[in-house]
Design a protein that fits this description.
The chain has about 100 residues and is α+β, with helices and mostly antiparallel strands. It is built from 2 helices and 4 strands, in the order ααββββ. It has 2 domains: about 30 residues, no CATH class; about 50 residues, no CATH class. Strand 2 and strand 3 form a beta hairpin. About 5% of the residues are buried.
Length: about 100
């Protein structure tokens, strides 16, 4: 599987775009963590309708989507795999980003 994480931009470009350079490092860490989890093929099993899940498409994109009652994903086409969302944090963050 290939993860579509863009190359890390320069610090100046990152600040100009409004996000810090460590954003890319965090994205890569998240992608690596997702890679460790077990993806479920849509050919084997579909998620429960109307519950959000992580999805993986045939062109390598990862997103969040939900299956509708017609057994179609609502936002993405060509979903090949899915997995449940992780549990939310136990404690709320004291400082937002």
């Amino acid at each position: 599987m290939s993860w579509r994480i863009p190359p890390q931009p320069s610090l100046l470009y990152s600040l100009w775009m409004g996000y810090p350079a460590p954003y890319y490092e965090a994205c890569q860490l998240a992608a690596d963590e997702l890679h460790k989890r077990q993806w479920i093929s849509v050919e084997d099993r579909l998620p429960e309708p109307m519950y959000q899940v992580l999805i993986y498409t045939d062109d390598g994109w990862i997103g969040v989507d939900a299956l509708d009652y017609n057994e179609e994903f609502r936002e993405y086409d060509y979903v090949t795999h899915w997995q449940p969302l992780p549990e939310p944090p136990k404690e709320p963050s004291k400082k937002g980003v």
